[in-house]
Amino acid sequence: MSKIIAPIFYYFRGMIMFQKFLLHTCCAPCSIVIIEELKERFDLTVFFYNPNIFPEEEYLKRKAEVVRVCREWGIPMIDMDYEPADWEEAIRGLENEPEGGARCAACFNLRLERAARYGKDNSFDYFGTSLTSGHNKKAEVINPIGLELGERYGIKFYEADWKTVGRQERAQKMIAERKIYRQNYCGCRYSLRSA
User: Fold this and answer.
1) Where are the beta strands (DSSP E) in the chain?
2) Of the four, 3, 49, 84, 150, which is 20 to 30 A from 106 by CA?
């Protein structure tokens, strides 16, 4: 469940300054409603780091849709390098895990750690992720990873289950209206195999 975080802004010399929020984004279908919601409450920047996505042409399709959404709303986007070798190293020994198991947790950890470190190094107040909006992505697995990384790096993690309060229905409508590419598997080659 999303938590209301207050205050969402600072006062500085009589001006309202929104707190800086770094949103790790996995794809446009999972993040479009989150971006729409957070851009009204924070100084939002989208962070695209997904070395798990296979093959590279799929990675580029998903990234292009996130870029399109960010451009439409004038949201800054940080485009991290495509580093599949780092992902392979992070999940080494977990290749035969079932979808949703320990391999996925290691993958979440890799991506969220990069976001936490970037957020801390660049003076963001919060970081969060769109991962919990996915049908098969459990907030009870992802949020503890984010909270632990937030403590380790000294940046607040925005704990949320983005599947709630009609967000998935709203996302479906927005995806259809904008003709956003929607993938049919989570991202890595193992999820492709089981799709």
Assistant:
1) 9-12, 15-18, 20-24, 43-48, 77-79, 126-129, 156-157
2) 3
